[in-house]
Every structure is written in C-alpha cells, then in structure tokens.
Amino acid sequence: MKPDMTVEIGGLMLKNPVMTASGTFGYGEEFAPYVEIERLGAVVVKGLSPQPKEGNPPPRIMETTAGMLNAVGLENVGIRAFVDTKLPFLKGFDTVVVANIFGDTVDEYVEVASIAGTTEGIHAIEVNISCPNVKRGGLAFGADPAIAAEVTRRVKAVSERPVIVKLTPNVTDITVIARACEDAGADAVSLINTLLGLSVDIETRRPHIRNITGGLSGPAVKPVALRMVWETARAVSIPVIGLGGIMTAEDAIAFLIAGASAVQVGTANFVNPGVTMEIIDGIEDYLKRHDIASVRHLVGKLVVD
Amino acid sequence: MRNDASLYISGTVYAHRALGGGHYVIGITVPSAFRDVRPGQFVMVGMGNRQVPFLPRPFSVYHVDGHAGETGIEILYKIAGKGTRAMSEIRVGESLSVLGPLGTGFDCTHKKEKIILVAGGMGIAPLGFLAEWYSRYVTGSWTSIMAYVGAATSGDLVGCERTEKLCSETHVCTDDGSRGLRGTVVDAFRRDLSLFGEESAVYACGPSAMMKELSKLLKESSLWCQVSLEERMACGVGACLGCAIKTIGSDGSTAYKRVCTDGPVFNVRDILWE
Description:
Number of helices of chain A: 8
Oligomer: heterodimer
Largest sheet of chain A: 8 strands, parallel
Helix content of chain A: 25-40%
Structural class of chain A: alpha/beta
Shape of chain A: globular
Number of strands of chain B: 16
Mean pLDDT of chain A: 96
Structural class of chain B: alpha/beta
Low-confidence stretches of chain A: none
CATH architecture of chain A: Alpha-Beta Barrel
Strand content of chain A: 15-25%
CATH topology of chain A: TIM Barrel
Helix content of chain B: 10-25%
Radius of gyration of chain A: 18 Å
CATH superfamily of chain A: Aldolase class I
Mean pLDDT of chain B: 92
Largest sheet of chain B: 7 strands, antiparallel
Radius of gyration of chain B: 18 Å
Strand order of the largest sheet of chain A: 3-16-15-10-9-8-7-4
Distance between the termini of chain B: 26 Å
Order of helices and strands of chain B: EEEEEEHEEHEHEEHEHEEEE
C-alpha cells in the first residue's frame, strides 16, 4: 500500500514533508531544469525584505569540513519585485509557496509581512529572526525571547497566512525562544538556521570570508540540529520543521524521528540539484519497508530507555 | 535566468592525462545534449559522496569530443586546493557528477576581423576552446586569430601547442622569462595594443590580478573585449549568491551580479574591481 506522505503545518496541507530551505533554492526557477517542483512539499524562497538588498562584498562563501560558511548578506530583490517578477513562475506549480521574510527593524518585518501575508500565491510566511536587530546594537532578534515574541506577534497580526518562525541556534537554550514564539502565536517553528563560524587562510592570515564570520551549514551541523529539534519538539506543541545538514532520505527520517513534522533541505541542493526528489522517494521507500501507513506516525518516535 | 538545456548527470572518466607541473586534462562522458556547450560556458563537477571536497567545483570546458560513439567533455585544470587535488586522484572508469552546461558563453556574432586571445595561466582553458570554435564553426568575417599566452613559469605553460596550431600567431610569455618574453601576458598585449582597433575582438581569461591589470589598460580604450571570470561558487545555477561580482552600468550605477548565471563572460568595462 502507498503510504500517506502528507503532513500538516499550521493548517496547511503539504503533499509530503520535504521543503526547500530558504537561500538554497533561489526563487524556485533556478532549479526548474533539475527538480519537478510540484513534487515538493513546499518551496521556501530566498529571504525577502521590504526593499531590495545588495548583500555583502565577496568573497561570500568558503567550503569547510563537511559543510560551508556563507555571508551572502541576505541579498534579495525585495518583496514587491518578488511578487511581480518571481511569484508568477511559482504559481504555475501545485505546491505550497512559503515566503521567507526579514527586516532590520520590527517595523520592517511588519511591512514585508503585510504584503507576503496577504498576497495570493503565497501560502505561508517563514520569519527569519536570525538577522541583527539594527536598533539593538546588532544582537539577533532571535537571541532574545522578548524580541522574538514581539516580532512573532506583530507579524502574526498582519498576516492572513500561517506564520513559521525560523530560529537561530546561536543561543544558550533554543527551547526558551521556541516557547516565546509559540506563546506569541507562531503556527510552527523551523530550526536550525546556520551556526556562526570562522575560517582562516593561514598563508595570508585573513578570514576566507570578507564579512569575517559566516553561517555554517551542511552535514557538519546535523548532530547539533537534530539535538535542538529533539529538545524543541518536546518543549512546544506547535509543529517543528527540522533542518540542518540533511543530505539524504536517511538524514531526513532521523529528523522526523527526533520530532520534526517536516524537514527542509538546504545546502544539499548545491551538491545535487535534484536531491529533494531522491529524499522524497527515499522517505516513501522507508515507510513501505517498515510498513508505516503515514509519515506522521514516525514523527517524534525516538526510542529512549 | 533559467537554462533549460542544463543537465545533472553522472559521467564516466574516459581519459585523465597529467601534463606536468600539477596540470591535468580529464575527459568525462556526457549525454549528446552537451554537444551544444559553447566556449566560455562551464560545468560543476562533483566527486560523488566524498566528504572532501564537499561542494562541486566549477570548471570551464576545454574541449568537446566524440568518444566511442558518445560525447565527451574535456577539462583542463591545475591542482590549486583540496578539490582539484582530489580530482587528480580520480581514475579512468570512475564516475563524476556533472552539472551543465552553465553560464553565458563568449559572443562570436560581432563580425570582427581580428580575433585576439589573452590567456593567463588556466585562462587558456576556455580560450583554447574558443580558438577551436572559431576555426571549426564560425564562418564569415574573421581573418586571423592571435593568442597571447602567459604563465608564471615555463612549467605552467600548458595548451600552447593547441593555440599554435589554431592561431596565426601565438605570443608566449612567462613572469620569470623561462620561456618566451619575460613579463605578464598583459605586458605582451600592451606592447601590441596599437595594432588593434575597431576591427578587433579581444577575449581574455586569467587570474584576478591579470584581469584587473587588463581592465586598467583598456579603461580609456574602446576595444571590444570580453572577459571570463572565476569565483568561488556553491551551486552554479544562481541560487547560492556566493559568486557575486561588483558591476557598473553605463549610467554609473553599481550592482552585484552572479558569475555563474549573469556570467562568467562579461564585458571588461562592466566589472568594477575593488
């Protein structure tokens, strides 16, 4: 029997639990030659701000052991250009479109959410709270539970669509932030964003990345991500979307078992642009092999003595 | 910016020759659709499930070949880091992932008479392919191809035999004077600059120091010149935004562009070197 692959996130039905991670799948069209976009559970687009953003000076990326650092600087076309020029392409596919949003101030989050949360063809908002809070000396919005809650509440107030809050792992206790977002009305949380890192060229004694530090992603972060997903899934009752270093179906299944209701595939898209298709097929094969009727039955089934 | 003709495939290595000095040519079988790859385009080559290198690496195509009834692409490379070192250990018969063809190629539709190639180091890879392309496929106005080929030292001069065969003149130079003229390839090109004008098309590729020098040289000139650039990149398809390069428009406005999909071929005057 064909297992039920559907999952539900904040009232939205996904045809399977495999989403793309923001910033690794462009606006969808970049991957159209390699991926059947309508087979994806959801497409999460590159982070959008009220105005276009130029991004950081290069070099922006560096390969590290089993992963990569990036400091792209949230370069994007801006929410309005996205709606006018990028969204029409995605509307042509029967899949869930999630607009990832960010701002330099809470008001900017509200500005972009008021468009993203009311535009036809955008089914949910994912709020990136890992960016620096300009008015608070650059500390990430997501590093302070009160600020994380404020952003969530204000975005939720203007959005007609479910709101997913994407959490930063660069905190002492991610469950405190997750609970604050849940209490403020978040429909789901996704984690983890990248881990802050540094790579040094010992010949020039300079950082490999112009921004000095960058976000670490790839298989190197997977055990950290799994641990945080497991902790968070036990701390909140809203769905948790797991991401961080997923390269294969086996990796994705581990996240589901640890408590994720859905997963996002990020850096792996750079290694194999068709990897999401293989992950969807691999999860389905696993369910058949273990005679599990629905992928939902797997969620949070970590066995601990 | 979609390239619907692009494919992600697993290809078998059918040839892998060491040229000395850490230089290699690797041949990979690819589907026949790759026959349409143009000079200046590139492929992302991945080394399977190895942890090192983790990301695929971009390489410009050096040659397209028929191989035992299949299509083959050849890549010229030099060991420069972990990725190319791992690649040098790949044996004939092993598989590599290939994503491509990617990016814009060189423009060959301009009807100029003199074709001038300025290649520094591994810049010979796309320009060698371009020389071959002109001699095989571009008919019409062009009458001669001149190549300036430079490297740090004679051991790093690879691919000259090919340009010597295909071009009416090949000027060789090395930084240390161990072969040909002493000096950089831009020095050699600068010496002959007055020979070139409206009827000339210049194509250049090489390390960023060379490209900066060339940009400076051509700043005040009106010579038609395209350059092919190299940057670290993760995806090759315009999504990671890792390969940003600052460009300047005719109105003076600046913007980052992606080497992978907006390039890797650019007008030399569009690049704003920082």
